[in-house]
Specification:
Layout (H helix, E strand, L loop, with lengths): L1 E2 L2 E2 L9 H20 L1 H39 L18 H12 L1 H17 L8 H15 L2 H19 L12 H4 L6 H35 L8 H20 L2 H26 L2 H23 L10 H28 L6 H33 L11 H9 L5 H31 L8 H21 L2 H37 L15 H8 L5 H25 L4 E6 L6 E6 L7 E11 L17 E9 L13 H21 L3 H4 L2 H9 L1
Antiparallel strand pairs: 1-2, 3-4, 4-5, 5-6
Helix pairs in contact: 1-2, 1-8, 1-16, 2-6, 2-12, 2-13, 2-17, 3-10, 4-5, 4-13, 4-14, 5-11, 5-13, 6-12, 6-13, 6-17, 8-9, 8-12, 8-15, 8-16, 8-17, 9-10, 9-15, 9-16, 10-15, 11-13, 12-15, 12-17, 15-16, 19-20
Protein name: BCCT family transporter
Membrane topology: Multi-pass membrane protein
Keywords: Cell membrane, Membrane, Transmembrane, Transmembrane helix, Transport
Length: 679
């Protein structure tokens, strides 16, 4: 545009104003409320959260259990063979790189902090205080594994699978609105599609902002614990956020296939090295034995835990909402971010491979991780007279207090801090990529200034909310959003199922039986029938011109060979049919019948310029049927000689079945048997 005689150029971008502007407006209102009125905002949001948790806890439990069961059934069925992309699509990333990125985007930083913290907190304040120490230990580990196990990944998988399927299979933008394609169809780019992406963008920014804020606080506490910072301070937190987001922006600019992949691979190797050190330096046999028992205990109780609401134990409701419901709400609120990122990196995988890997592999790793650090921490606590349970209130320090009980504590401190820092950076990296993708309606490449913009916005929001004390209110709102979003996810599941069923029906559809006989001699007539809709008059004409002459010739030839044959005729317009009946005495007669089947014609085809000859809303097709109840097929393209050949093919099958003597039980005529009994 011209301004003051100068040409002003806006920077190149692919942002969608209908998504970005409403999102920024809503986020601005919420953040301003949290910054300038933190106490009042937190009070209002906390009241809403408490009401939702007390009245709708069962909704969270039922939804997450449904997600888990749906994915298991989907994986076991034939729909699991469908590929996330074209039929010959190859995976974009290697299996190892794919798994590394799954961990980094999902819950890597959480494992570092809660691997020790959650089992110790459960142990210090047991769910069943009257139980024996042994039972309390097993319950502490069971509840930890439940919260970090397969259900969390089921939530992520639902979003990731739906977006990857519609994005790569239907060639739609890989963004949240695409998961509702079977419902919205041509309205996908309208109001409802924009609203879905606005909700996803706001939820993602809220979730990432709180994660950056609390992550910086925990990292600050860890650096202070090892002496790198003398005392925790707000200036240190600002420095950590700026450094982490700056590195995340640099990594994001290099592209998902480079920055995130290399950092994720290196960090997973570091995390596994720390894991193996604890396993070897700690009580190895006890940890491995605990892992075996933990897996069995988890699998034994998984159905019960999936539907547990403490409806009969009202005294446990506070524990239930503070732990399980909060976790479920947190995973759901993170689902747009993690699910969309998983979708982006899963092109070329089959649905079965996606479900098995995203559910089982991270879950087994999480169980092993929690066993090594959790059971290891419980063992250390018992050996040191409760050094960890006594410090259970300071969860951010428990990991370092635990590592202090092993050799080379300073080295393990530094490795742990490096792993946490890289998980911190890769989460921000992935988040910036996902925000860019949602804001640009599924684009894969973005101008560098957009990456800088979103990264800077996340950093400023985190610092401002931490400074004002409004971060807790924002976290509460993030959890509140989870309830309506869980309902949205249920709707997405049914959209996904509908898409998969249509997909399977489309690709498993076989050629019409009639086309087997095509030799090119009547191709003009075949084309006319393909691009037109059959009417009742067309069906009656087919009976008179093709079926009747064919059946008469067949009857004459059967009679010439000493075989009794009858032709049943009905010309009623509503139930017209023809039957060629070959009598077989005490056995079931051979019947080759023909009637019509009326199918609705899609609105997409009726009146379409591509099919100008299709004007009727119902299509009447001649269909064959048989005495044994087998479903017939369309014979609309057959000529007289071709119909005769098809009848003989079916009769040959019938005679061969009789000749083997293995099918007499089924082929026996029930009418003759009943008459024999009466005699």
């Amino acid at each position: 545009m011209l301004k003051g005689g100068l040409l002003v150029k806006f920077p190149k971008n692919n942002l969608q104003p209908s998504i970005v502007f409403p999102s920024i407006l809503f986020i601005g209102i919420v953040v301003i409320s949290c910054i300038f009125f933190p106490i009042r905002t937190d009070t209002v949001l906390s009241s809403i959260k408490e009401y939702i948790f007390s009245s709708c806890s069962w909704v969270y439990i039922l939804c997450v259990a449904f997600f888990f069961l749906f994915l298991v059934i989907l994986c076991l069925g034939k729909l699991g063979d469908i590929r996330l992309g074209n039929e010959d699509e190859e995976p974009e990333f290697s299996f190892f790189s794919w798994l590394c990125m799954l961990f980094s985007a999902g819950m890597g930083i959480g494992l570092m902090f809660f691997g020790v913290a959650e089992p110790i907190v459960h142990l210090s304040a047991p769910l069943h205080g009257s139980a024996s120490p042994l039972v309390q230990t097993k319950e502490a580990m069971l509840n930890t594994l439940f919260h970090w196990g397969i259900h969390a990944w089921a939530i992520y998988s639902i979003i990731g699978l739906a977006l990857a399927y519609f994005g790569f299979r239907y060639q739609l933008p890989v963004t949240l609105r695409s998961g509702f394609y079977p419902l919205l169809k041509n309205k996908l780019n309208g109001f409802w599609g924009n609203l879905i992406d606005i909700v996803a963008l706001c939820a993602t920014i809220f979730g990432l902002t709180t994660t950056l804020g609390f992550g910086a606080m925990q990292l600050n506490a860890g650096l202070s614990a090892v002496g790198i910072f003398s005392t925790p301070s707000f200036s240190h937190i600002i420095l950590l956020i700026v450094i982490a987001v700056g590195l995340a922006i640099l990594s994001a600019i290099s592209g998902v296939s480079k920055g995130i992949r290399y950092m994720s691979q290196g960090n997973l190797i570091l995390a596994i090295s720390l894991l193996l050190f604890i396993l070897v330096a700690g009580p190895t046999v006890y940890i491995l034995s605990s892992f075996t028992e933990n897996v069995g205990y988890y699998l034994t109780h998984i159905i019960e835990l999936s539907f547990r609401t403490f409806a009969y134990e009202s005294t446990k409701e506070e524990w239930f909402t503070n732990w399980t419901i909060t976790y479920w709400a947190w995973w759901i609120s993170w689902a747009p971010f993690v699910g969309l990122f998983i979708a982006k990196i899963s092109k070329g995988r089959t649905i079965r491979e996606f479900v098995v890997c995203v559910l089982l592999v991270p879950t087994l790793f999480n169980i092993f991780w929690m066993t090594v650090f959790g059971n290891g921490a419980i063992w250390v606590d018992a050996q040191t007279g409760g050094i960890l349970t006594n410090a259970a209130a300071e969860t951010e320090k428990l990991l370092f207090l635990f590592l202090d009980q092993f050799p080379f504590a300073l080295v393990t401190y530094l490795i742990a801090l490096l792993v946490i820092a890289i998980f911190f950076i890769t989460s921000a990296n992935s988040g910036i990529f996902v925000i860019n993708s949602i804001a640009s309606q599924g684009k894969n490449t973005f101008p560098k200034w957009q990456t800088v913009l979103w990264g800077s916005l996340l950093a400023l929001l985190s610092i401002g909310l931490l400074y004002s004390g409004g971060l807790q209110a924002l976290q509460t709102m993030t959890v509140i959003i989870a309830l309506p979003f869980a309902i949205i996810m249920i709707l997405m599941v049914f959209c996904l199922l509908r898409g998969l069923m249509i997909d399977n029906a489309y690709f498993s559809r076989k050629l019409s039986e009639s086309t087997v006989y095509w030799d090119g001699s009547h191709w003009q007539d075949c084309l006319k029938k393909i691009i037109s809709v059959g009417t009742l008059d067309d069906f009656q004409r087919f009976l008179k011109q093709t079926v009747d002459p064919a059946f008469k010739e067949l009857r004459q030839e059967f009679l010439r060979n000493g075989i009794s044959v009858q032709i049943q005729v009905c010309n009623d317009s509503h139930q017209a049919y023809r039957e060629l009946v070959v009598e077989s005495g005490s056995l079931r007669n051979f019947i080759y019948g023909i009637h019509y089947r009326a199918n609705d014609v899609s609105d997409t085809v009726v009146g379409s310029l591509s099919f100008p000859t299709i004007t009727e809303e119902e299509n009447y097709e001649p269909i064959c049927y048989f005495a044994d109840g087998r479903r017939g097929y369309s014979i609309k393209y057959m000529q007289k000689d071709e119909l005769i050949t098809d009848v003989l093919r079916q009769y040959e099958r019938y005679v061969k079945m009789l000749a083997t003597g293995k099918h007499d039980l089924y082929l026996s005529d029930k009418v003759h048997l009943e008459q024999g009994e009466k005699r």
